[in-house]
Amino acid sequence: MLPVLPPRWLQPIIRPAAVHRLRVGAPGIHDRRSEKEVAGREGRIAVGARLRPLHSGGVLAGPALIVKTHLGDNLMVHKALQIAEPGDVIVVDAGGDLTNAIIGKLILTHAEKIGLAGIVINGAEHDYGAIRANRFPLFAAGVTHRGPYKDGLSEINVPIAIDGIVVEPGDLILGDDDGLLCVPFGDTATIHADAKAKQEAADMLYARARATQAHLTNSRR
User: Fold this and answer.
1) What are the distances in angstroms from CA 82 to CA 2, 6, 8?
2) How many Å from the N-terminal Cα to the C-terminal Cα in the chain?
3) Per-residue pLDDT tens digits for 98-110
4) What is the pTM for the complete model shown?
5) Which residues share a beta bridge with 140?
6) What pLDDT, in 10s, does the model give residues 29-85?
7) Quick one: three-class SS letters along the chain?
8) Which 3-state string (H, E, C) describes 50-90?
9) Across the strands, what pairs with 64?
10) What are the residues facing 69 on neighbouring strands?
11) In this structure, what is the dihedral angle of CA atoms 154, 121, 73, 117, given to the nearest 10 degrees?
12) Distance between CA atoms of residues 48 and 64, nearest Å
């Protein structure tokens, strides 16, 4: 039997407007943030390269609702789905084990139906064929044909570490084709201006490069 938990148990709330403002892409935020990090604090930013996007494409952005589970066990993932609110990102730390899948297409279909922003699994998924044809964001460490256990050896909304990267409840999770970031809850307001400035500068460089290429092409005619 699933335990009864208060709504959004121990999870701070990020306003939707803040989430929307930070949808500028993982590289832009990480590059700019890294320039301002002091030594020893980089572990609060980039979620390791093992977790890759398995969906067909699209940006992931939303506050973390965390599940820390025993290897191969997904019982509390179902509880997280019950207490999650639209826009949340369920982040599951399954120890990186790829023996048993934590989720498949049924859970993902339900997650999309209730309006979640996406799911991150430090572990495996199955039903990859259906997942890669869908744009609902899913990041995971791998794929397996084996299904999960349901023993319930799990916790909800406790701090976790994925490859040394600390993720806490309510932290902003961002992901795109290049990978995943965790923006600490207390930094979401201050990081926006720097990330936006870097993105605008990059867009300007791309525009200049395209203009130069067009000029060279025309001059050769």
Assistant:
1) 10, 11, 10
2) 74
3) 999 999 999 999 9
4) 0.75
5) 52, 121
6) 545 444 444 333 444 556 668 899 999 988 898 999 999 999 999 999 999 999 999
7) CCCCCCCCCCCCCCCHHHHHHCCCCHHHHHHHHHHHCCCCCHHHCEECCCCEECCCCCCEEEEEEEEEECCCECHHHHHHHHHCCCCCEEEEECCCCCCCEEECHHHHHHHHHCCCCEEEEEEEECCHHHHHCCCCCEEEEEECCCCCECCCCEEECCCEEECCEEECCCCEEEEECCEEEEECHHHHHHHHHHHHHHHHHHHHHHHHHHHHHHHHHHHCC
8) CCEECCCCCCEEEEEEEEEECCCECHHHHHHHHHCCCCCEE
9) 89
10) 154
11) 70
12) 16
Cβ contacts of residue 145 below 8 Å, gap of 6+?
A: 101, 126
Radius of gyration for the chain, computed over Cα atoms and rounded to the nearest angstrom: 19
Residue with tokens 């990041």: 139
